[in-house]
Design goal:
The complex is a heterodimer. By secondary structure, chain A is an alpha/beta fold. Chain A contains 28 helices and 7 strands. Chain B contains 9 helices and 8 strands. Helix content of chain B is 50%, strand content 16%. Chain B has helices at residues 3-29, 36-49, 57-64, 68-81, 96-119, 124-137, 140-150, 196-204, 238-242; strands at residues 84-87, 91-94, 175-176, 185-191, 212-218, 225-229, 232-236, 244-248. The chains are: A alpha/beta, B alpha+beta.
Chain lengths: 641, 251
């Protein structure tokens, strides 16, 4: 119970569709994609049925209840909380064996539960499943559902709200030698949140978080038992326990599910083509190129469309309105407002929109994990495994969820490398908008790609250096590869909206206020005390107009602020358009520096949370230094040639 | 399981019977005095000490569920035969001869247990019990033959085996998952890795002994492998895939 409300949590293996089901159950949209590890934080919502209110938590995917990685720890901690009254275990109908093993673990821990078997629409095509028999065997309510078609979602919501979750009487029977040790341990464990038997099993498995949790002498006995077992069975206790669980789960599945067809499907063949290097690498390059080309061309098209529309519709309305209420000063303020609205609508939104739609399609198709397989070897040179590719791609949208996504990475060393690379070398959608929108428009597409190329080289250099100078730690790829799916338009559009809505709710007002403030400050020469001391960097080193420094500073708040402020700074009375304010080369250097320097405040806050303040400061300082150095070099090259 | 494997099973049984007949001849020559009961003592001392140190009679009595008096009597016999060294008030320890013998027995026990559970699908409890009886009955040669067919993890106990070849990973006929070719299938026999974290992850992802695996794509020696276990597909890098030992099935 939490605030007097019955509380339940969704627990399931990665990529079984917890988040989609959560969205269907509660109507609260959470991002779901077709790769393991989309959810790293928990989300909550309330469902109401027949007058009963139940709070539901969506948790990250977990293979077991042992807390092996950070996102798995989140699940264990959450479930340990006595506020959680019951657990809904989500199983994958097409992979019941593994799902049932997780289900056994939850049962053993003595938590009241409901088993929701998801993806029945897919599974039905392959085999018949006898859910009633499963319910009888497991002695908990079993609800077949499909988050995709919404089948069974109502039944699940009813089951949850009627409080049908219950503690199962089903017991996993372990081999005698293990079982007797478990029982003897269970007697010594003091009753707590989790059942004694379940805790004893966890102790036999050698699960650290449970060992820390019990008295030292119990832990010592468990340790003795584990050693004893290993010496007499030449297999460690955790393997023996897993072996027994799987043999029981296999037996159950054999009983309730007809045999799988093992014919190679069309999906498998496409998948094969995607992961075979000879065909896969050209596909990967093609995919990445089309992402950028789509951003450029579709983005550009939308950009012009919106600009025409805006100018036709608004004309000088805002400027005149300003004049009418505040005279010349009013006009200045409202021209600034006009410019910043236009900048957001044309230079930012179209590019971000296009990118997020493509990202949504890529995520839902299941292509990303296949790119991971291809890239694994290359990434090893940077001390990473292929899995780090996914946070990086997510980082092209926004660095904040990208840094959070590094939680699925097991070693701290790797997290640090990936985070640094994301902060410095992965331009977020606002930065992409600058690269393709501003630089693309005012310097040319060649310069846009030059920036991407430089950033890519920088990524390789930093990656290799970090890998070389940081103490080695094993980095291993072990990642589930989901089936390929045809992305659902609904989910893609939902995700796109969910990800860009911040621009309208938060960024827009901030931008408008910011640009007005800058406009006023400019008018009264209030910015000189910032602009002048830093002009050595801006003018001498980077070859940009001195006031641009204000745009850089604004970009720390949010990257798109830089664009708006740049427009405000440079487009004043005499210069009619942004394009005329700087030379193409200057726009290129501006874009280059923007792409590398300083993560925005929100990103720094997550890096702080994930890695600590020292690392955050080092990354920030490092990125500023690198950006200035590279910008200066580019400026030198341009001046020389 | 395919028909050919089934044929093999029945063949094993025949060999096993032959082996047993042979065993009688061999034991008559080598160890005329040691009965199954005595062997239980040796194997239990090995399990308790793992080859080092002494074990008290009391402890043995508890483990074997017999009276301390019969323990001391048996220890005397074993000591006379040169299998154990007994020090009063301290306990018994295995001599070199005794250690070697006990290791062979333990290996036979593990092998038979494996054979019963993995090949014949006998439930673990029965398998353990029957293996306990079979360990005394099977000859070295038959044990080796079974080992060659079903494979078993190589360990200390294996070193006494004539087939043991440390350079080629012992006498196991298990294959590393990383060495399997695309399309090959098999059953996981055991997991081994220097890094416990890898084992933990493998277990949690369902790479558990006894389960069927299939290599979907294995492009290069060092590159990642795409493997199916149950109905799930995973990408594993070569180091992780090397930790999974597989008994290949013949297709």
């Amino acid at each position: 119970m939490q605030d007097g409300m019955f509380t339940t949590a969704l627990v399931g293996q990665p990529n079984v569709g917890k988040s989609s089901l959560f969205t269907r159950l509660t109507g609260v949209g959470v991002i779901s994609s077709n790769y393991p590890g989309t959810t790293v934080e928990f989300e909550e919502a309330v469902i109401m049925r027949k007058g009963n209110k139940v709070r539901v938590y969506d948790l990250p995917g977990t293979y077991g209840m042992s807390g092996n990685s950070e996102d798995e720890k989140v699940v264990l901690e959450m479930v340990k909380n006595p506020d959680i009254d019951s657990v809904i275990v989500i199983a994958d109908a097409a992979n019941l064996q593994s799902s049932l093993v997780l289900c056994f673990e939850v049962m053993e821990l003595g938590l009241p539960m409901i088993l929701a078997v998801n993806k029945i629409d897919e599974a039905k095509k392959k085999f018949d499943t006898d859910f009633e028999a499963l319910e009888k065997i497991l002695d908990v309510p079993v609800v077949p559902v499909s988050a995709r078609t919404s089948d069974g979602v109502d039944a699940l919501a009813d089951a949850v709200c009627e409080g049908r979750a219950r503690i199962s009487s089903f017991e996993v029977k372990y081999s005698d030698s293990v079982e007797s040790m478990i029982l003897s341990l269970a007697e010594q464990v003091t009753p707590a949140r989790f059942g004694n038997f379940g805790t004893a099993v966890k102790l036999m498995e050698g699960t650290q978080s449970f060992i820390d949790y019990v008295d030292d002498d119990v832990a010592a006995t468990a340790e003795k038992f584990r050693k004893e077992l290993e010496s007499s069975h030449e297999e460690s206790a955790d393997i023996m326990i897993a072996r027994d669980r799987y043999s029981i789960s296999d037996a159950i599945v054999r009983k309730i599910q007809s045999k799988t067809l093992t014919k190679m499907s069309k999906k498998d063949r496409i998948s094969e083509i995607m992961i075979t290097p000879i065909t896969g690498i050209p596909i990967l390059i093609g995919v990445m190129l089309s992402v950028f080309l789509a951003i450029i061309f579709i983005g550009n098209f939308l950009d012009e469309l919106v600009e025409d529309l805006y100018v036709t519709l608004m004309g000088n309305t805002l400027a005149d309105f300003g004049q009418s209420i505040g005279g010349d000063f009013g006009r200045v303020v409202f021209v600034g407002l006009d410019q910043s609205i236009l900048a957001v609508l044309t230079l930012i939104i179209p590019y971000i929109l296009v990118f997020y739609i493509i990202l949504g399609i890529l995520e839902d198709s299941g292509y990303l994990p296949r790119a991971v397989v291809l890239l694994d070897r290359v990434m090893h040179r940077f001390g990473l495994h292929g899995g780090a590719f996914i946070p990086m791609i997510v980082g092209l949208g926004c660095n904040v969820p990208a840094v959070m996504a590094t939680r699925s990475i097991h070693s701290r060393r790797e997290k640090l490398i990936v985070t640094t690379l994301i902060a410095l070398c992965v331009p977020c959608s606002a930065q992409l908008a600058i690269i393709f929108g501003i630089v693309g428009n005012f310097s040319g597409i060649f310069y846009s790609f030059l920036i991407l190329f430089i950033v890519l080289i920088l990524m390789a250099v930093i990656g290799v250096l970090l890998n070389h100078f940081m103490t080695k730690e094993p980095s291993n790829l072990a990642m589930e590869i989901p089936e390929l799916e045809v992305p659902s338009l609904k989910n893609v559009l939902f995700k796109t909206w969910d990800r860009i809505k911040d621009f309208f709710y938060i960024a827009f007002p901030l931008l408008v206020v910011g640009s007005i403030l800058v406009q006023i400050a400019l008018d009264y020469d209030l910015l000189d005390f910032i602009v002048d001391p830093l002009s050595f960097i801006t003018v001498t080193m980077l070859g940009l107009p001195a006031v641009v420094v204000i745009a850089f500073l604004a970009g720390i708040l949010r990257k798109e602020m830089a664009v708006v402020i740049l427009a405000t700074l440079l487009v004043s009375g005499d210069i009619g358009s942004l394009g005329a304010a700087m030379s193409p080369e200057q726009f290129f250097i501006f874009g280059l520096v923007m792409a590398i320097y300083m993560p925005c405040l929100a990103t720094m806050a997550v890096i702080w949370q994930e890695l600590g303040w020292k690392e955050t400061l080092v990354i920030a300082a490092f990125s500023i230094g690198t950006a200035i150095a590279i910008g200066t070099m580019a400026n030198l090259m341009i001046t020389i040639f | 399981m395919s028909a050919s494997v089934f044929n093999q099973n029945s063949e094993i049984k025949i060999k096993f019977c032959l082996g047993r007949a042979k065993y009688i001849n061999i034991t008559a020559i080598i160890v005329p005095m040691t009965s199954g009961n005595r062997e239980d003592y040796l194997i239990e001392i090995l399990r308790l000490t793992n080859g080092e140190g002494k074990v008290k009679n009391q402890e043995l009595a508890e483990r074997l569920n017999v009276s301390p008096a019969s323990v001391s009597e048996m220890i005397k016999v074993l000591s006379n035969e040169g299998y154990v060294k007994y020090t009063k008030y301290v306990g018994a320890e295995l001599t070199e001869k005794g250690l070697e013998y006990a290791r062979q027995l333990r290996k036979k026990h593990d092998l038979m247990e494996r054979f019963l559970t993995d090949v014949l699908d006998v439930d673990p409890v029965t398998a353990h019990e029957e293996a306990h009886r079979m360990e005394h009955a099977i000859s070295d040669e038959s044990a080796q033959r079974i080992c060659r067919i079903i494979g078993s993890p190589d360990n200390e106990d294996c070193k006494l085996c004539d087939d043991y070849n440390p350079d080629e990973g012992g006498c196991r006929i298990d294959t590393k998952l990383s060495d399997m070719l695309p399309g090959e299938t098999g059953k996981i026999s055991h997991l081994r890795s220097e890094t416990p974290a890898i084992i933990k992850r493998l277990i949690s992802m369902g790479f558990v002994p006894g389960r069927e695996v299939c290599m979907d794509s294995n492009i290069s020696k060092v590159g990642p492998k795409v493997v199916s276990v149950g109905n799930a597909t995973f990408a594993l890098d070569s180091e992780t895939a090397e930790s999974v030992m597989v008994k290949k099935s013949d297709n």
